[in-house]
User: Which sequence fits this backbone?
């Protein structure tokens, strides 16, 4: 660690661990509902569990991105954070708003638009909060000694993510328009600007972990985010096929969204090639596992499994079935959850001074969570495909179909248990690191620069 | 070989160009198409209130509508056509009574007006031109496995409140399967028994899964007459 103020990111990461745990608890509540064990229904009906599950996911990922920014931006700008106090105020207020929203969900206080359930009054607080965060980060960079591509891409991603929250706050009476602009948020986040954030963080990690020349890495970073927007912006059309928008979206959405996997493929190839180019192995093996794992799994979960149902002819049948849930899990896990876990694995030894680089617990955490998630995805895929055939093709009644596919949720819950065990081990390691007491050193944490010197 | 500057140009130009096209198409969609495809002239105050109720209670947290939402409960785009307004009105008062022993929905205490708003909303949504969604099942090929649950309100010779019964009972091969098929029920029971049964199933057979349905005297008589003729 090079700058004292980078330590604030520890508290962002600790919050991530807490919210991730809660998210998984709510995932299990829904999983049990689906196999008929719905004893909690009177207090936590399925819709409350679901809103909590997905909002916790989004909040912990955003908290992780913010933690990453507080770690990366000082280093990429060559100076301390603009204000450490502001960072703490922002984190605490973010938690307060989040907790209020989640308690509200349990008392039927929400907006009922998928992924944008947070009620309007709280939306304004979220905006205020994110503005605080952005001000702190941008001021840090503005007055910095240097301006790197990695830093700029990351901050641009965060800035546009904040801007794109706004279309989700407009009131519409027309269900079609409501849905149309809901995708401005949901799609243009995960298949647009969040990929800028992903590219920025991955580039930072690869620079640190492989020692490959920054110029080379940053050049490819531009190519990747270029591909992202080339395909992803018009790719939004894959959500406009069947919601009351004109037919030309079938053509446009189909053509551009089928190209979206290219960006994820480029990300995977890029990460692997940079790893191959590395002259010498960085000792932090766990960070390397999560970094490469993220690049590969995002290609499978977002790229391949997204492409599987993105053509209008297929989507006609899979739209709004468990096939979507299958893709949603693996895509969020591979692209964004693993990304946050990667930056945490990389920065924790530097933040706390405890060099947990390659222990058994960490390796088990990696493999159990990944194999568990793969199993969950397969179980959901089988359930989804069966649902598509029975309900959409043969015209069987919804509830009758749900009975037929119940068994796949038993399998899913077994795999989820494996997944949760992996996450448990990850958190055990996190706790083992202890608090943020890392030494600030002149060389910072650049293993390769150190080696040269 | 590509230089960093060229890579940056590729990113900036590509992004600006495709974002421009996307905004243009969004504009065209909103201004020139959505009103027509969604019949926005039919969006009465009732429909809009219905949408608000749908949102405020997060019905999308269990159901999909236009294919968006959660995958725990039936797709609602065509529910008006499938079940009919009478059935939805009765169903909302006590969802469990209509689906005994099934997956649970939340029991809301909506007023008559609120239910009417929701029903108006469902009717409007059902009429949106969704480019062919939801797809028609391929019934011909798998006729034997098909269990249809259409409320056959449209068929003239059926009693006016038949949609209340057809969600649970089939007749002539179409309808629900919660209760027994009603083909030939006129041979089994006389009009008096049917009248008593329909007025209050619990008093005839305590613990039965058939709920008491709100029918006026005239509607009940029409029903009894119809059932008695099913021989
Ligand atoms: C990291 C990137 C991605 C994430 C996190 C992600 C996540 C999701 C989620 C959560 C949904 C459900 C959204 C909702 O119904 O509100 C969804 C839907 C969808 N995704 Fe992705 N996705 C990603 C990338 C992709 C890519 C690259 C493609 C195509 C190649 C794709 C194709 C689709 C399609 C077609 C749907 C609509 C499914 C339906 O009609 O129900 N996704 N995605
Ligand atoms: C480990 C235990 C988990 C279980 C048992 C679980 C279970 C579920 C269930 C039952 C749903 C609702 C699907 C429906 O509407 O019927 C859901 C939704 C969702 N979960 Fe999970 N989940 C778990 C972990 C995760 C993780 C780790 C992530 C992200 C990395 C995640 C991301 C999502 C997303 C994005 C959705 C919305 C999907 C969509 O709308 O298409 N879940 N989950
Ligand atoms: Fe998308």
Assistant:
């Amino acid at each position: 660690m090079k700058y004292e103020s980078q330590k604030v990111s520890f508290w962002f990461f600790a919050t991530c661990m807490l919210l991730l745990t809660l998210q998984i608890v709510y995932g299990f509540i829904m999983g049990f509902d689906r196999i008929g064990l719905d004893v909690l229904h009177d207090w936590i009906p399925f819709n409350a569990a679901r809103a909590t599950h997905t909002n916790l996911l989004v909040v912990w990922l955003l908290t992780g991105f913010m933690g990453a920014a507080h770690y990366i931006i000082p280093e990429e700008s060559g100076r301390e954070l603009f204000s450490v106090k502001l960072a703490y105020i922002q984190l605490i207020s973010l938690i307060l708003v989040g907790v209020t929203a989640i308690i509200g969900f349990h008392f039927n206080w929400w907006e009922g638009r998928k992924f944008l359930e947070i009620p309007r009054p709280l939306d304004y607080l979220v905006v205020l909060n994110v503005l605080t965060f952005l001000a702190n980060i941008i001021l840090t960079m503005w007055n910095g000694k240097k301006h790197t591509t990695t830093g700029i891409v990351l901050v641009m991603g965060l800035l546009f993510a904040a801007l794109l929250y706004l279309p989700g706050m407009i009131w519409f009476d027309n269900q079609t328009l409501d849905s149309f602009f809901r995708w401005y948020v949901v799609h243009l986040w995960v298949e647009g600007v969040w990929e800028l954030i992903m590219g920025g963080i991955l580039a930072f990690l690869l620079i640190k972990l492989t020692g490959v020349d920054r110029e080379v890495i940053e050049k490819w970073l531009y190519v990747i985010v270029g591909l992202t927007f080339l395909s992803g912006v018009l790719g939004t059309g894959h959500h406009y096929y069947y919601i009351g928008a004109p037919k030309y979206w079938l053509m446009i959405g189909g053509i551009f969204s089928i190209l979206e996997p290219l960006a994820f493929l480029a990300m995977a190839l890029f990460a692997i090639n940079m790893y191959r180019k590395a002259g010498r192995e960085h000792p932090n093996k766990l960070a390397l596992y999560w970094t490469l794992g993220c690049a590969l799994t995002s290609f499978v979960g977002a790229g391949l499994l997204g492409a599987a149902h993105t053509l209008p002819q297929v989507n006609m049948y899979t739209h709004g079935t468990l096939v979507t849930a299958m893709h949603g899990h693996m895509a969020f896990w591979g692209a964004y959850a693993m990304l946050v876990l990667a930056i945490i694995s990389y920065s924790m030894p530097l933040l706390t001074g405890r060099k947990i680089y390659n222990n058994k617990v960490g390796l088990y955490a990696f493999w159990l969570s990944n194999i568990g998630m793969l199993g969950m995805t397969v179980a959901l895929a089988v359930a989804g495909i069966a649902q598509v055939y029975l309900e959409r093709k043969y015209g069987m009644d919804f509830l009758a179909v749900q009975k037929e596919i119940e068994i796949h949720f038993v399998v899913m819950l077994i795999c989820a248990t494996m997944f949760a065990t992996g996450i448990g081990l990850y958190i055990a390691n996190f706790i083992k690191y202890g608090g943020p007491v890392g030494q600030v050193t002149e060389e910072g944490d650049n293993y390769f620069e150190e080696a040269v010197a | 070989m590509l230089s960093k500057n060229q890579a940056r140009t590729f990113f900036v130009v590509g992004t600006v160009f495709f974002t421009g096209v996307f905004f243009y198409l969004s504009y065209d969609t909103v201004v020139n198409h959505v009103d027509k495809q969604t019949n926005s002239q039919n969006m009465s105050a009732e429909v809009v209130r219905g949408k608000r109720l749908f949102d405020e209670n997060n019905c999308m947290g269990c159901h999909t509508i236009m294919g968006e939402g959660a995958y725990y409960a039936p797709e609602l785009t065509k529910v008006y056509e499938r079940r009919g307004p009478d059935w939805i009105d009765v169903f909302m008062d006590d969802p469990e009574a209509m689906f005994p022993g099934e997956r649970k929905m939340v029991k809301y205490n909506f007023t008559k007006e609120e239910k009417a708003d929701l029903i108006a909303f469902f009717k409007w949504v059902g009429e949106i031109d969704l480019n062919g969604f939801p797809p028609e099942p391929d019934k011909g090929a798998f006729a034997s496995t098909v269990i249809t649950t259409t409320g056959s309100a449209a068929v003239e010779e059926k009693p006016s409140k038949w949609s209340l019964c057809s969600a649970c009972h089939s007749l002539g091969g179409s309808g629900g399967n919660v209760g027994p098929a009603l083909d030939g029920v006129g041979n089994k029971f006389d009009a008096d028994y049917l009248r008593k049964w329909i007025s209050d199933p619990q008093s005839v057979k305590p613990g039965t899964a058939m709920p008491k349905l709100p029918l006026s005297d005239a509607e009940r008589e029409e029903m009894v007459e119809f059932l008695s003729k099913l021989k």
